[in-house]
Specification:
The protein is mostly helical and 261 residues long. The protein has helices spanning 28-38, 62-65, 142-155, 157-174, 182-203, 219-222, 226-239, 243-260; strands spanning 18-21, 43-46, 55-61, 77-84, 102-103. Helix 3 (142-155) runs antiparallel to helix 8 (243-260). It is globular and about 60 Å long. The mean pLDDT is 94.
């Protein structure tokens, strides 16, 4: 193993950094999150672990590989796994993914998802660890930051609702039978809808004190037409309701305060 050297000495951003992930964060996003975590450059916040796709594939058009045989074409495509990615700390992102430093409840936290659920997925392994470091920005008091976040999450009412909803989704996911009795089926459907409405009502509200606005540099692009304005307004509206953004801001506050001590 060897380290790819960075021949560009320019640093675009040298401040504190948080990376949000969930179970569907895969491939290149995992490489980024893993590198930032290994170098102690960023703190990873989100689901227990990312998707776990640490391999590289190439597609081959079989029609281009065989001359003639037009009577049996198209032959289709072949996807071949050619590479596997390893972190500088030695382990692969394959199968295990990237584990969050700070775990936040989400709807799929009790449901098995990711590369590890595929029958023929390549296994996790590791190679020799290399010596590495960076001097752009190193997180201080990381364990204290994680501890504070864990305490907040345990006391947060919205995250409690999210956790309860995740348990409900796990129950439905594990269910393998459906009643063929129409009356019972309709009743079960009504109960499920009532539960859906219950959680939607409690999880769909603006967070008090959450102020969101676009960067000035982005406004000319956004204001080019009414569709972009409408999409942007909806995006800002959703961010104001995002409990994960809220906790990320709390974590950032802890990081900044720790740097100033």
């Amino acid at each position: 193993p060897y380290i790819h050297k960075d021949n560009d000495s320019q640093v675009v951003y040298d401040g504190p950094l948080i990376i949000l992930i969930n179970e569907m964060s895969a491939s290149a996003s995992e490489i980024m999150a893993a590198a930032m975590q290994d170098y102690n450059r960023a703190i990873i916040v989100g689901s227990k672990a990312s998707f776990g796709k640490g391999t590289v594939q190439r597609f081959f058009d079989l029609d281009n590989m065989i001359r003639g045989a037009d009577d049996i074409k198209p032959l289709g495509n072949l996807k071949v796994t050619t590479q596997k990615f390893y972190r500088i700390s030695g382990g692969s992102t394959q199968l295990k993914g990237v584990e969050s430093d700070i775990i936040l409840p989400d709807n799929y936290m009790y449901i098995d998802v990711g590369e590890r659920e595929y029958k023929h997925a390549m296994p996790w392994d590791k190679i020799q660890k290399l010596e590495y470091s960076q001097d752009v920005f190193n997180l201080k008091n990381k364990e204290e930051i994680i501890k504070k976040a864990k305490e907040r999450v345990q006391q947060d009412t919205i995250f409690k609702y999210i956790n309860d909803n995740a348990l409900r989704m796990k129950k439905y996911s594990d269910s393998t039978s459906i009643s063929l009795n129409l009356t019972i089926f309709k009743k079960q459907k009504e109960i499920r809808k009532a539960q859906d409405d219950f959680y939607k009502k409690r999880l769909n509200h603006e967070i008090k004190g959450m102020k969101v606005k676009n960067l000035d540099v982005d406004m000319p692009h956004i204001e080019m037409d009414s569709n972009r304005i409408a999409r942007n307004d909806e995006w800002l509206k959703n961010i104001k309701k995002d409990e994960y953004i809220k906790e990320a801001l709390n974590v950032m506050k802890d990081i900044v305060e720790g740097e100033n001590q």
